[in-house]
Amino acid sequence: MKYKYSICYPDKEEIEHIEKSVDRDEVVSLVKNHNWAEEIQKEIEHYSPNLDFISLKNRKRIIMSGFGNTALEGFYITYITPNDIGEDLLVDDSNAHDVFNQDYYLGGEDYSSEFGTEESFEILDAFLSENYDDLVSIFVSEEEEEPWQRELYEREMEMLINSRKEDQEINEALMKKENSSEKSPKKWWEFWK
Length: 193
Hints:
The protein is α+β, with helices and mostly antiparallel strands.
């Protein structure tokens, strides 16, 4: 299978879309041999170096964003499926230039999580081997919450709801006050009191 790819450098505004297609072995080589340490040191806040690979067979894609302090410690990986498997998703020479068009992914599914380096290469292998169900199960198992996370989320939601209720009560009181003052306009002498 062939893949198109792009490179995101943290110190460049534009993403570099590579024209040539690569095969499985080249994808692995690109990820292993990318100069992650140097790119990570250039990293700007919220802007990580990454490689984005898209299958020319089905437009499924995997984005591998390297992270670490001074060396590569792991990857933040996003796996994205297109919105529909149809004739318009098949890639050939006539539309290969359009492979990175985001419209193909609106309404599709995406999975993201952070992984260590070794596990990241297992995930890449699952993607390249077209083991998509295994790939999804890895992400879904990563997303399972610990009980304390659920409890924290519920407390935060309760605080948010209470805050909104208080805001609503204040707004209703202000509206009542405005409405009551409109019903009984003040006489001119009341303004001097």
